[in-house]
What we know:
The protein is α/β, with parallel strands linked by helices and 470 residues long.
Amino acid sequence: MQIAVVGGGITGLAAALRVRQRAPGAEVTLFEKTGRLGGKIHTERADGFVIEAGADSFLTRKPRGVGLCKELGVSGRLVARQAQHAGTFVRHGDALHPLPEGFTGMIPTRIDSLTGSALLSPGGRAALEDEESVPAPEDRREESIAEFVIRRFGREVYERIVEPLLSGIYGGNGERLSLDATFPQLRDLERRYGSVIRGLTASREQGVIDAAPPFVAFAGGMGELIEHLEARLREASIQTSVEVVALEPRTGGGFVLLLGDGAYTEADALILATPAPATARITRAFDRELSDLHAAIAYGSSVTVNLAFREHDLPRPVGGYGFVVPRVEGSDVVGVTVASNKWPGRATEGHALFRVYLRAHGGGDLTCETDDALIRAARRELNETYGVAAPPMLARATRWPESLPQYTLGHAGRVSRIRQRVAAHRGLFVAGAAYTGVGIPDCIASGEAAADEALAHFGVADREAPSATA
Ligand SMILES: Cc1cc2nc3c(=O)[nH]c(=O)nc-3n(C[C@H](O)[C@H](O)[C@H](O)COP(=O)(O)OP(=O)(O)OC[C@H]3O[C@@H](n4cnc5c(N)ncnc54)[C@H](O)[C@@H]3O)c2cc1C
């Protein structure tokens, strides 16, 4: 049984590992277009700094992040945010306001903490406090996140709190993102309790809301996860710098894969763990509708800029984990993480590391800008908020074109149609951030589910994945 996995990001690696764990006799080949595994997980270690170019942490609430780390025997390497620096802020004008406690993961866990926030005007607070009296609609029309939040909580809560947090997670526009495809649990609370606040209170009383810190990272950066996966996959064939450009069904089952250098290879089953634009290209000649459905999934681009300083070059100590910037502020900066405050071991003693997250405010594409322009924009933000004027001792700009899938209105319908088209091709499976979750635990779960489907296709009996030892 030959299984090919296309894409060496976390989704493809998790899929390949699952096949190896459940069917050690299977021949697994993973094709990765670039010279490096990890995709949007990319850690650089330089001059004592741990620099995250892409993802820097993951949610513990979704089981497959921590679950995979346990199976790899590396959960001891996970670190929580440094409690002594706790605090996230929202920039409003030139001032940083504390983000109300209980609202850090976009899904509020403590609405009561919002009522005292200086971020909201008296009118904004009144709208928030009225949420319990807003009736749930009778129809089940699909709503955008903005429509839902504004309808229930008022415009200020959306613009000043929810939208900037959303930008950090989805890099997208809440007016276009589908609530059902992104945060169905909010709609569910409204339906079951008639009010999100009432639903949250009930969930807290029933102990459903976990008060534990929601995010974890690797001590040496998220790249550690990729390194552990690569080590565990040494018996699979991992081919980097090999692009899959097209595929063709084989008579009698399986696929012929056309590679970037013109060569061909074959597989009995194929897991496409590529972002939707790449999947659209690979499937173009093979199934036009499947390709078009993937092409219809919009993607947002973003840029990260990491800047390191000597602490004595900062005009004053910087507190907290960082801040987010609401779109109404008109800035290209979406948020700033004080990485050396947030996570242990990110900078050597006496140094500070900042990560600035940028996305074109006017809807353009910052990934076309030069490093200098991007670094200048990031430094301007640090200067305006923290008064940092000194030149950084290290600066890195990383571009992420077409990197964040946008689950816009109609997304669930598109995904369901994709599933139907994929099922029409025996031995073909798709996985990744494009479908039902963009976070790392979602991608792991998606890759593993595709591997399970591929094994079921070969009649490999369903069983729990073995838990590996260190
Ligand atoms: C800047 C940024 C910050 C983020 N921060 C977080 C975070 O903190 N926490 C979190 O949970 N999530 C975060 N995310 C989201 C998360 O990192 C991604 O959704 C996830 O890593 C995607 O994994 P993937 O394997 O599905 O795709 P990718 O990581 O995109 O991997 C796909 C791989 O396929 C390869 N490929 C593409 N086409 C081909 C082809 N034709 N042939 C062969 N290979 C191909 C690509 O080169 C790539 O390596 C962030 C995303 C970005 C962009």
